[in-house]
Design a protein that fits this description.
This protein is mainly beta. The chain contains 3 helices and 17 strands. The strands form 5 sheets. Strands 1, 11, 12, 15, 16 and 17 form a 6-stranded antiparallel beta sheet that branches. The longest helix is centred in the first third of the chain and has 10 residues.
């Protein structure tokens, strides 16, 4: 039973931009795709100008001399977390994709060749933590109170008018090895976050949280 991605955390980074060699097999065309630089890029959890999946898709479809009727789609699977580049209207190959920055970020470790209608990355993207579950402990109200005791032993307190609501979220990581994920019969037996250091999850990280199931690692959310 494969795991289903229910939540994700994305870390922002700067992407310098680059050119990619693209071969359309049926049309027998060797083309060059220019991917623009992106400041504050993210994988998946961003708008169309900052999400590298959408940025790459837009760049491929804007490739000079791309024949009419040939289009590209770049997607991330909710089951494996792997990125796929698919071409409609022709077959293609990108021999240098794995050695490019964007290819490495999106999970390619080997060349996208020989020509085919689609290619799927070998590993999950960098800078993106994929979660198999999200469980909420429920919102609870917190109000700061200042207390003191007089010399005579009388205690008193003053309650602030500020109210804060807190919830504790428990996440289960999706393993980064696709073969291991596919072999799982019970979710969350092994957990791994395919993002560099844990310290990367700073207040600047983005999160998306669809519905949930079972726990392990937890974090506190304040609103």
């Amino acid at each position: 039973m494969a795991l289903l991605i229910t939540s994700a955390l994305a870390v922002g980074f700067d992407y310098a931009g680059e050119t990619l060699a693209l071969r359309l097999q049926t049309a027998a065309l060797d083309l060059t795709t220019t991917v623009p630089a992106v400041t504050g890029a993210r994988v998946l959890l961003a708008d169309s100008t900052h999400d590298l999946l959408q940025v790459l898709q837009t760049a491929l479809n804007a490739t000079p001399s791309l024949p009419g009727g040939t289009t590209f789609a770049v997607t991330l699977s909710p089951l494996t977390g792997l990125v796929t580049i698919a071409c409609s209207g022709d077959t293609f190959k990108m021999v240098g994709l794995a050695s490019s920055t964007i290819g490495a970020v999106l999970g390619w470790t080997s060349a996208a060749s020989p020509a085919a209608a689609s290619f799927t990355a070998q590993i999950q993207p960098r800078y993106l933590c994929l979660l198999a579950s999200r469980e909420s402990a429920g919102w609870s109200q917190k109000t700061p109170i200042a207390a003191a005791e007089t010399a005579g032993g009388v205690s008193y307190g003053t309650r602030s008018g500020v109210v804060r609501w807190e919830d504790t979220l428990a996440f289960g990581f999706i393993p980064s090895d696709p073969a291991y994920v596919a072999s799982l019969a019970v979710p969350n037996r092994r957990r791994n976050c395919p993002v560099a250091p844990r310290s990367s999850f700073s207040p600047t990280a983005s999160s998306r949280s669809p519905p949930a199931s079972s726990p392990p690692n937890s974090a506190t959310s304040n609103t």
